[in-house]
Write a structure and sequence with these properties.
The structure is a single chain. By secondary structure, the chain is mainly beta. It has a domain of 86 residues: Roll (Chitinase A, domain 3), CATH 3.10.50. Helix content is 6%, strand content 28%. It has two helices and nine strands; from the N terminus they run βββαββββββα. Strands 1, 2, 3, 4 and 9 form a five-stranded antiparallel β-sheet that branches. A four-stranded antiparallel β-sheet has the order 5-8-7-6, with no helix packed on it. It is elongated. Also involved in hydrogenase metallocenter assembly, probably by participating in the nickel insertion step. This function in hydrogenase biosynthesis requires chaperone activity and the presence of the metal-binding domain, but not PPIase activity.
Length: 219
Amino acid sequence: MKITQHSAVTIHYRLSDEEGRLLEDSFDSEPMLYLHGTENLIPGLEAALEGKTKGEKLDVTISAEEAYGPYHDGLRQAVPLEAFGDIEDIVPGMRFIAETEMGQRPVQVMEVKDDVVIVDGNHPLAGQALNFSVEIIDVREGSAEEIAHGHIHAKGGCGSHGHDHDHSGGGCCGGSGKEEAGGCCGGSDHDHGHHHEEHEACDTPKTGCDGNGGCGCRG
């Protein structure tokens, strides 16, 4: 069976950056599951997998434009510490949902100064070409429910966390392209034990902890 619209696909992958540094590797753990054609993956990787079959392997370089997009300087900004209201112990790595010049986006705290917090709304891999080595483990038809929901219903599959924008956590890296932050894989959005909800900061970040992923999922 070839990978086409609404195929449920299982892959193993290695992801490295432009300098060849390994960023992610699923071969020593669980494979990634995703629903093809529903913006679960970055465009370039999804295009490369189109028409492939179980057992095939491929090495592909995805341009920044077809991966996580260019780096936007305007998404890195200095925010007054007071804008974070009653949120305490703000440290680099924490994530919030904020209003930016490009709309509502997840932002990550990059630096904390005396009275200013530097946040960045770019995906960590924005502006970079990415190298993928992929092995297709399985291809099947997506179920009616999976197609209706736009993701795989399986442990570790894209969407298996309910797109918990507190996500960037587990399964397919970085999330659905339909949701700015989420996906199914990446880091915890309960960083440092904070669940940033019902707070207002960074031009009203309706905090929730997002999820910037990797491994090819949209994020």
